């Protein structure tokens, strides 16, 4: 699979609960209407944890990582060009203004490396 990741921060006047509710009930359905060539549309909401050495808690630079999965590199690359252009439909742009700090957007094409593990009955992990 081929992926594009979008890293986004919510507007400062929205709580995380408000942000997530709006994204799931308003923005995601709107986006699904225009997604072509996308195999999966995943939203991963971030909850920061304390630093393991200092114990300090720091707000995350982003509130959600959105993943767009593609079966072909061609579809991924075509979508990457589209997303990084100024040709987004005005309806999407206006909806994003209700939700995101649009200046925080970061987009990336991802090349993945993955290890998978099987757990045996003792809880030990074996790499596949």
Describe what this molecule looks like in 3D.
The chain is an alpha+beta fold. The chain has helices at 16-34, 73-83, 90-99, and strands spanning 2-8, 40-45, 64-70, 106-110, 117-119, 125-127. A hairpin with a 5-residue loop joins strand 5 and strand 6 (125-127). The mean pLDDT is 89.
Detail the topology: elements first, then pairings.
Layout: E1 2-8, H1 16-34, E2 40-45, E3 64-70, H2 73-83, H3 90-99, E4 106-110, E5 117-119, E6 125-127
Antiparallel strand pairs: 1-3, 1-4, 2-3, 5-6
Task: Give a short summary of the structure.
The chain has helices at residues 16-34, 73-83, 90-99, and strands spanning 2-8, 40-45, 64-70, 106-110, 117-119, 125-127.
Query: So what's the overall shape?
Result: globular
Query: What is the helical fraction, as a range of percent?
Result: 25-40%
What spatial order of strands do you see in the largest sheet? 2-3-1-4
Number of helices: 3
**Terminus-to-terminus distance:** 19 Å
* Main sheet summary: 4 strands, antiparallel
